[in-house]
Amino acid sequence: MTRGKKQETRNKNQGARDRVRNECFTFAHLKLENLSTCILAIESSCDETSASVCVDGKILSNFIANQTVHEQYGGVVPELASRAHMQNIVPVVDAALSNAFPQPPTPNPQLQTPNPKLQTPNSKLQTIDAIAFTQAPGLIGSLLVGAQFAKSLALALNKPLIAVHHMQAHVLANLIGDNKPAFPFLCLTVSGGHTQIVLARSPLDLEVIGETIDDAAGEAFDKSAKLLGLPYPGGPLIDKHAKDGNPLTFKFAEPQIPELNFSFSGLKTSVLYFLKKQEPGFIEKNLDDLCASIQYTIINILLKKLKKAVQQTGVKNICIAGGVSANNGLRKGLQEMGEKHGWKTFIPPFEYCTDNAAMIAITAYYKYLAGEFSSLEVGPSARAEW
Fold it and tell me: DSSP states of 76-131 as a string?
């Protein structure tokens, strides 16, 4: 066989392989288009810009852009957060769509013409059945960026709009994946701004049965960390140092609040006055034990109330959610208490604990099935009731 014929044969074989791959991708793409519910979700309530694609309750992508600009200020600066959201939202949404709907293999241009429909960004958006966004609560400027982007996209694509409550979404993050709790279940939701015990009877029937009356658990971690001289965000650093410390070295106040409610302001004050009485260099010498003792106290407050909620409701399917649920001490403590009392415990993966759009997407999926859509007149709210 001559060199020219060998090259021609190779080109034909390559062309056949390209056509097979492209036909397989086209089939998968068309099959995806025909699925009942495909949601694009956007989360922008604080300092993470996130977008996610969910198809029939399965998360196909969950892309998050973090903001490091706030570290030098010791907390989130709302104006800087809003500006960062404006910079991040388009590339974040594009990344979520690209990860969920990858491009087909590029065929040999000499043998086959690419399908223009599958190559355009707009074709990815056309697979979406609804646009979801975080409506409340959160920083109002940050919420505005995500809300206006979602509303504009829904209007341009003529797609339904779904407004999602951020804290409800944290609870329903436990429904992502195969290891899901059966209803009813209790969820201890702990974050930087909220601490709640939620009774979940169904995806859309959620009741807050206990909550903080002042600081949240996340605030207790961060404020205590600041008193110890640790940089922001201090919660993860307390968790890190606590691994090498003795949690029973120091005792701090545990406020006695009635019913299922919480209070953490007294703990912060207790840590403050304790440290004021110490000699210079005390924190540096006892940092691990201090972190372990503070973390132990916070977790003890949380789990005592959770145990009381189980006794009052009789529900033994127990979940945790929110950014503080990524804390190793809390996760370990919940598992140990569950084993001791015969609970079925469920802990979401780390990527679904902190603020993310996957939890917005899964919540929107159930709202879509129930026909709970929002008009374009809906606006964001810094504070909102359930």
Answer: --HHHHHHHHHHHHHHHHHHHHHHHSPPPP---TTT----HHHHSHHHHHHT-SEE
